[in-house]
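Aim 2 progress update. The chain analyzed this quarter is reproduced below.
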Amino acid sequence: MPGRAGRGTLRVMRILMLAPEPVFSARGTPISVRERAEALARLGHAVDLATYPFGEDFDAPGVSIRRAARPLFIKDVRAGPSLGKLALDARLKRLARSLAKRNRYDAVHSHEEMGAFGARLARGIGAAHVYDMHSSLPEQLGNYRAFQWGRGFLTRLERAAIRKSDATLAISASLAAHARRVAPGARVEVVENAFDVFPRDLDESGAAVLRKTLGLAPDARVVAYTGSLGAQQGIGLLLEATARVLAGEPRAAFVIAGGGPGLARWKKEAAKLGPRVVLAGPRPLEEMPAFVALAEVLVSPRTRGRNYPIKLCHWLRAGRPVAATDVPVHADVLTDDVARLAQPTPEGLARAILDLLGDAALADRLGAAARALGEARFTRARLERDLGRAYAPLAAREPRG
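Predicted structure tokens:
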């Protein structure tokens, strides 16, 4: 294909991107998928984004959204494994094959469980393959007891995806190290998220509205968590710590905004702690700047995993002090210089939150350091640079005849 993409690549490529997600929706991987597709388009490439029949369309020059057919009786898809997701993946593969027959692609860019399939598809049409690794598939399955039977299969699928790809993109350094252990000799690049879908400015007026609608006292000192309520997120640990914080700070209040299969359970647990603990349920992405502005302290109680929560990108840039568990999943981003790290126990997490509520100078210092890190690291410019570096060897190849 003629032309030059510029900014780190040698020529324009036509890319088939496979995203087994409801793109766009306000949760981690769909946000990442959108940002990567838009960044590749800004680099000058043409991206056909093949995704699920669910999600909001978005307008991005250079990105064409192609949606798979919806299987009968499936009206939505939640995060994590499910039988419905298997049916959706089958329809997505059918769409990908159809697109590959009708169009000439220079590369196939596959997210998550589409990796091994995408590698085979790319090889069949003589295109390069890029595997975008947002998590370790078998480890992610460890969060869902009902699906443990599939862990061995996903281990083999993950290894095949990494080995058979021209490049594997990992969203964190620890995930990249895991990929290199799984497939020694594979080309693995770290390409972190930017999370620029959030507005730069916090929504202070929206925070004032939330304070009223959530029934919070005017002088309540809000500790907030936003994100999914999945097993790996540590919501149980957070609620145990909450009781200790409420006892230590009479004006403290907790707001947990997010959804998922555990919502009903956590609402019951939160109700035992009284009206100063509010589970706001799933909220639209547009409200997140208001929730962050509402918070005096943001808390990440995650206990396991390799991929750090990408909401940290937004939290750091917001300049709010963060209390987080001192576990490997946070180590790629958080240090004592930018956050209050805590032992992953109810006592440890409560102590970290109380430290930030009780020491304004500490909170201000960590918030300022967090903002400096976020604005330097989690930017569109850096995402484009890293994607350009990862794609450069592929763009240097001669186009297919």
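The radius of gyration is 21 Å. Residues 1-9 have pLDDT under 50 and may be disordered. These observations will guide the mutagenesis experiments scheduled for the next reporting period.
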